[in-house]
Amino acid sequence: MWWVLWVLAILLALFCMVDVWYFLRAAAVILRAWFQPPVWDVTAEQVLTGRVTPHDIDMCHMNNARYLRECDFARFSLYMRNGVFKAVRALRASMVVGATTIRYRRALCIGEGYELRSRIVTWDDKAFFLEQRFVSTKDGLVCAVMYCKQSVIRSSPDKILQHLCKRKVECPEFPEDLQHWVNFISASSQALRAESGLEEKNK
Fold first, then answer.
1. Contacts with 139 (C-beta within 8 Å, 6 or more apart), sequence order
2. In Å, how far from its chain's centre is CA 155?
3. Could you tell me which of 66, 78, 51 has the C-alpha nearest to residue 21?
4. Nearest CA-CA partner of 69 in 138, 146, 150
5. What is the pLDDT of residue 149?
6. Are 114 and 134 in contact (CB under 8 A)?
7. What is the pLDDT of residues 12-35, one digit of tens each?
8. What PANTHER family has UniProt attached to this entry (predicted)?
């Protein structure tokens, strides 16, 4: 009987201190992607389907933070199926989100189904840039669109793609709206460095 109480206490502590559902969902997404057919085109759009549940909502529509959470899971699936995760591990590199921006166009309401369409748009010498769209299955409207800068650590996008494709991969051009966002990130970084005195220290 005591061991049951210990297990319950440990589970309670885990759920209090760690976002257990996030890690369980991430594991399920990665496992599902593992058994799905690979996607050989790294820039191909991949689609995950979802539905707004009571756990996702505030005021009867999907909470703003839930969009970013769902985008996390969609990127896990994307990188598993197109081989980017495998290449990152092989090169002993890692990836982190360096920046995101999202535009909400119309609320996704409780019970509403949607497609989350993710794709790598382009890259530079330090990061991949992705677009992720929430498209309502009710009327096909793009309800939200997000750009994500996925920074590569201890390697580069070019090296990852060369490892995958065994050749040099031509980088697609930056769309105009994405380029504006990248310019904003650069300007913001320079301003923050100047504010903290880093630029003077590096001279």
1. none
2. 19
3. 66
4. 146
5. 98
6. yes
7. 888 788 888 899 999 999 999 999
8. PROTEIN THEM6, PTHR12475
- What is the C-alpha to C-alpha distance for residues 18 and 30, in angstroms, rounded to an integer? 19
The average pLDDT across 85-101 equals 97
The residue length of the chain stands at 203
The DSSP letter of residue 89 is H
* Tokens, residue 183: 């310019």
* Contact (Cβ atoms closer than 8 angstroms) between residue 121 and residue 175: yes
> Mean pLDDT, the chain, as a whole number?
93
Residue 101 tokens, joined? 């921006």
Dig out the tokens for 40 from the structure: 């050989």
**All domains of the chain in start order, with CATH:** 45-172 (3.10.129.10)
DSSP state of 38: P
